[in-house]
Amino acid sequence: MLDLDIKYLKFKTYLNTYCPYCHQSFNVETKDKKQLVLKAVFKGQETDLILSPYLDVFEVESSIPIETNEVLDDILCPECHKSLISKEICCGECGSPVGHVIISALSRLIPFFICLKKGCEWHGLTKSDERKIKLKIPRQEMPEQDKTLRIHNHQEVPYGYTSELASLEAGRCLQCKAPKCVEGCPVDIDIPAFIKLMRENDFDGAAKKIKERNVLPAVCGRVCPQESQCEAKCILGIKDMPVAIGRLERFVADFERKMDLVKIPVIKNKTNKRIAVVGSGPGGLTVAADMALLGYSVTVFEALHELGGVLTYGIPEFRLPKSIVQFEINYLKELGVRFELNHVIGNILTVDELREHFDAVYIGVGAGLPVFMGVEGESLGNVFSSNEYLTRMNLMKAYRFPEYDTPMPKGNKVVIVGGGNVAMDCARTAIRTGSTEVTIVYRRSRHELPARLEEVHHAEEEGIKFKLLTSPVRYIGTDYNSLKAVECIKMELVEPDSSGRRRPVPIKDSNFIIECDSAIIAIGTGPNPIIFSTSPDLKRNKWGYIDANEKTMETSIPKVYAGGDIVTGSATVILAMGAGRAAANTMHKQLSKK
Amino acid sequence: MFQIVRKQEMAKGTIVRFDISAPKIAAKVKAGQFVILRINETGERIPLTVADKDEFAGIITIIFQVVGKTTALMRSLKEGDIIKDVVGPLGKPANINKMGTVLMVGGGTGVAILHHIAKAFKEAGNFVIGIIGAKDKELMILENEMNAVCDELIITTDDGSYGERGFVTQPLKKYLEERYDIKIVYAIGPIIMMKNVCILTKKFNIPTMVSLNPIMIDGTGMCGGCRVKVGDKTQFCCVDGPDFDGHLVNFDELEKRNNLYLKDEKLSLLFSIR
Amino acid sequence: MKEFGSVNDILEFAICQEQEAVEFYSDLASKMKIEAMRIVFNQFAQEEMGHKAKLLDIKEKGIYEVSSEIISDLKISDYLVKTPAANDMTYQEALVLAMNKEKSSFKLYLNLSERAPNAELKSLFLMLAQEESKHKLRFEIEYDDMVLKEN
Question: Which of A29, A181, A340, A466 has most Cβ atoms within 10 angstroms of its Cβ?
């Protein structure tokens, strides 16, 4: 770029556009956009040329029609009528002469060139300049259901982006050469590439781009903790808000689904090798899809009567509609993956039997065993594990009782113990099923809440109370063994060792009672013992999880791989998918070797 | 697809027997294990212990008492109808080996489960004594089947309309007093019956196993709804049971937990009638 | 309760206590069903062995220090229902067991310190109590980190 003498312009105005000769601002400020008004000469006629900064291009309006690829004769300053053409500079793309103005952004003055050929209007800014200007498009919020309305239904809370909002948000991406966001993604989605396609309005292409790496984009766009993964690494996030990658992912996946654009890829090089996948949760589905696309014949075994694992029994309808889960699973069915419902592996078939019949076995059964705190009164009626509560509500659709036969655990005053996403899900389900007072009890402070910020925010909006720095010490029952109240104790945070992590310690004699008629314990889960009962050789670590190689996902038994919560303990959907991807890679490597 | 190949109504239609075609389960199921059924899309999951199996024909037998909406709906099914989901086998099998003399006590529908275990004990070469009870003669089930696997069989009815009058605990007490070679007692039936049997056998210090049937959803250890206090430990009936040491089980708590949804069950029945 | 006359008596007693703990954990280790849990209890035993060595060292050299450092008590085990030792224990249960064991030792030494006949013995008991509470804290921190992750 040319070094231009810009010393005579003021440094204060922000995103203003000036004539380099008379210093007049070209901006026409309307409420929501700043426009740049110039005089253009086209085919000998003088006309107003209005350029509106819109994403990274200027939308051009003029009083006389100018066709694309037609060259303007001249561009003039509307105030002093001097020609803005810089003879010495040409458009980098088409070689036409350019008009030269100065814009001011972030207290810096940046020379800006307007190509005379309509169609390539946006030239002249360096990457770093461009970056600064983009900052000004704010991160787009998703429209969502009103809080007073949504607590009476089970429909999804955010409606998702419209295509306008999605384009606007996609425009914020800087398209970094060495994108950090991809590093943050456990399944290595080519994030800049799909956003680039979105900017070209090719939403379908963007969806296909994501699907190359992720078979469940509509799910991940909704439930991934992007703020601690891809979005945490986004460069924009350093000074401003990161690009809403998750919302974009959700948008394109929904777009593809709603527009019926899903195409089933043709699978070449089919092999006769067979893969067994135990568990149809996100990890299992990823292995199934990856291996099916590589031409293997895949069978997925699911213990419950519905597919999806935690996506189906755990995450509530208002956060992840089950129809979407089923839709994404149907895609796998069309890839040729076979699903066997009602198969509890370990009982109906053992891992050893699977090894006989299949060339490789992937265990992705998750961490399904509920953990209780072990305080007094936990076996009272109306004290539920979060698993029981959510399984009844989501899998068995108890919230539609008595239309569905499974009774709904209902309480007027509900106490939820724990501060993770599961606790938020329980609380928000409770408020939707008519509980009048829902209280979350958490041992640490707000800062340590492990739930996603978005979930906490939604929960608070919906009127859920938070009792922080509080821990239950006893559940008090009535004579009929149902819950009456929870005795809690106040906690304070101390730093007991040099690790720097503050830990809660009970404050003496600070006990108090919360009256309630239902309690849900959502403090985590452990490994389910069923699969191990018939596979004693499967090596486990001290927590009871499978001891698997972190990179290759191999277990102590040859041909058997494991990943997801059953290896790491309860974590996220996307980490399970990452593990599934890693296992699929090793399986393929080893099976194609032979 | 799980087809009902045979249906038989017993005890004035309050107890129904289904033979269901489920070859994979039949090949694996052992005495004491159970399955979970869901009859249709809106149905609940209910656990039922397998009462018999025929692994060659690929058939499992379940026997259930009509108590609520789901079981009432099940009774209305006909031979040839399809049950949407059958999951199993679940739970740990009963610990069967040659011990000598074993005493099997069953009450009501519990006899159905007891029969499968008694059969397994007999096949293992034990001397099997059976005591089965019911409210009255017409509610007595599986008498012939029990007769076939028991070396001695005592029958009691509460009203004395058949066999001895009274509860199963009376002949049990007699046996415990007279015979010193009883190695184990298996008691399966209503909670109150199992509780009383255990109180009795504890006095004589005879190991006693009971089969529990608490509220359950998934049956795979996921929900924790079936938790029951056994000794000082909380156990999950679906993965640690369903058979437990009767002397350690906290029956009172179990009974209260089982009554949790009584009201809802009535509502559910009403809804289905409407 | 036993009466203690000298510093040596006390140390002897404390060393015995640690030795008992070593045996207790080794015994549990041998009974475990899962290999990983065997390793866990062997590790616990090893840790107790370390404590014992420390005491033996004190006994030999006759030097010990009572630091004024306050060891915090997270009181995690205080509200938990006690479960018995069993061969199918989970790591969570093992941690609770260990916490309770260290806590009872701590209480023992604290009691003894109150009844100590002179200041020298009192300070020794306090030192031992402090050691035990340090051991407990180590288990509590692990429990807090892993079991109570979402709570």
Answer: A181
Q: What is the pLDDT of residue A93?
A: 63
Task: Classify domain B101-258 at the CATH class level.
Answer: alpha beta
B2-to-A336, B43, B59, B64 alpha-carbon distances in Å: 24, 15, 10, 17
A502 touches chain C (CB under 8 A): no
Dump pLDDT digits (tens) for A93-135.
Answer: 667 777 777 766 544 566 677 777 765 544 445 555 555 555 5
Q: What structural domains and CATH numbers belong to chain C?
A: 7-150 (1.20.1260.10)
List pLDDT tens digits, range A415-426.
999 999 999 999
Which parts of A96-157 fold into alpha helices (H)?
A: 127-134, 147-150
Kindly provide the ipTM of the predicted complex, given to two decimals: 0.88
C-chain CB neighbours of B233 within 8 Å are 83-84, 86
Domain residue extents for chain A: 3-136, 150-258, 274-368+527-593, 372-523
Instruction: Give exposure, B61-99, as e/b (b: 16+ Cβ within 10 Å).
Output: bbbbbbebbbbebbbebeeeeebbbbbbbbbbbbebeeb
Eight-state DSSP code of residue A79 = T
Q: Look at B239 and A528 and tell me if their CB atoms are within 8 Å.
A: yes
Strands of A282-435, DSSP E: 297-301, 338-340, 360-363, 369-370, 383-385, 413-417
Over residues C8-27, the mean pLDDT reads 84
pLDDT band per the 50, 70, 90 thresholds, residue A4: very low
Domain extents for chain B?
A: 2-90, 101-258
Residue B157: enclosing H or E segment and its boundaries? strand B152-157
A527-537 residues labelled b (16+ CB within 10 A) or e (exposed): bbbbbbeebee
Q: Which residues pair with B214 in a beta bridge?
A: none
- Pairwise CA distance, residues A302 & A344, whole Å: 7
- How many CB pairs below 8 A link B and C? 8
Taking only Cα atoms into account, the Rg of chain A, rounded to an integer number of angstroms, comes to: 29
Query: pTM value?
Result: 0.81
| Among the partner residues B42, B84, B222, nearest to A405 by beta-carbon distance | B42
For the domain covering A372-523, report its CATH number.
3.50.50.60
- Does the structure show a pLDDT above 70 at A59? no
Say how far apart CA A159 and CA B203 lie, in whole Å. 66
Determine phi and psi for A113, rounding to 5 degrees: -120, 135
Residues from chain A that touch B217, judged by Cβ atoms under 8 A, are 388, 391-392, 395-396, 406
Architecture of the CATH domain A274-368+527-593? 3-Layer(bba) Sandwich (3.50)
- Residues A548-556, mean pLDDT to the nearest whole number: 89
Which CATH architecture does the domain made up of B2-90 adopt?
A: Beta Barrel (2.40)
Q: Give me the residues paired with residue B236 across strands.
A: B227
Task: Tell me the C-alpha distance between A157 and A523, whole Å.
Answer: 25
pLDDT of residue B144: 86
**What backbone torsions phi and psi does residue A349 show, to the nearest 5 degrees?**
-140, 140
The SS3 assignment for A141 reads: coil
> Yes or no: is domain A150-258 CATH 2.30.42.60?
no
Contact C78, C135 (CB under 8 A): no
Query: Quick one: which of B84, B1, B102, B93 has its CA closest to B49?
Result: B93
| Residue count of chain C | 151
Q: Which pLDDT score, from 0 to 100, does residue B168 have?
A: 86
User: Quick one: CA dihedral B15, B19, B21, B23, positive or negative?
Assistant: positive
Find the Cα–Cα–Cα–Cα dihedral A247, A253, A258, A261, rounded to 10°: 150
Nearest chain A Cα distance for residue C71, angstroms? 7
Say if residue A571's pLDDT is above 70.
yes
CB contact under 8 Å between A481 and B257, yes or no, is yes
Closest CA in chain C for residue A547: C36
Q: pLDDT digit string (tens) for A171-194?
A: 788 888 889 999 989 888 999 999
